[in-house]
Specification:
single chain, about 140 residues, mainly beta, Jelly Rolls, seven-stranded antiparallel sheet, four-stranded antiparallel sheet
């Protein structure tokens, strides 16, 4: 996904990243694009598995903004997965990463991401984003 705005931001509150992206079917095995919880992935294996999930994104929201990202499971934030970073100036991007978090997903469960602005209620622009899940 590139250059998408997450609007309706409330300071200090995580908002689900409800934007569309690209799904690479060529490497998918039992994983499909999320259908109901925003930018993410859905377990379509027919079974419950523990997935290793990684998130990498670059986001901006203005000058000197403190941003965060967390994993979501079926639209609810997953505690203990937050990562935070600062933007330097109005044109800089904050690198936000969640490396290798293990999460159990039943068949049909979805994993995605939510972002927050801890400095203001300014909308967050996601410049580039990636979510990867593997068994």
């Amino acid at each position: 996904m590139t250059d998408a705005t997450v609007s309706g931001i409330t300071q200090n509150v995580y908002s689900v990243v409800n934007i569309s992206g690209f799904f690479d079917n060529s490497v998918a095995s039992g994983i499909v694009a999320a259908s109901g919880t925003g930018f993410g992935l859905r377990n379509n294996t027919g079974a419950t598995f523990v997935f290793q999930v990684s998130v990498a994104l670059e986001a901006s929201a203005g000058n000197n903004e403190h941003l965060g990202v967390m994993l979501t499971k079926n639209g609810a934030v997953v505690s203990g997965t937050d990562s935070r970073a600062h933007t330097g100036n109005s044109s800089s991007e904050a690198p936000l990463n969640i490396p290798r978090h293990l999460i159990s997903l039943n068949n049909g469960d979805e994993v995605g991401m939510a972002v927050a602005n801890f400095s203001s209620s300014t909308n967050i622009i996601v410049r580039r984003g990636r979510i990867v899940a593997s068994v």
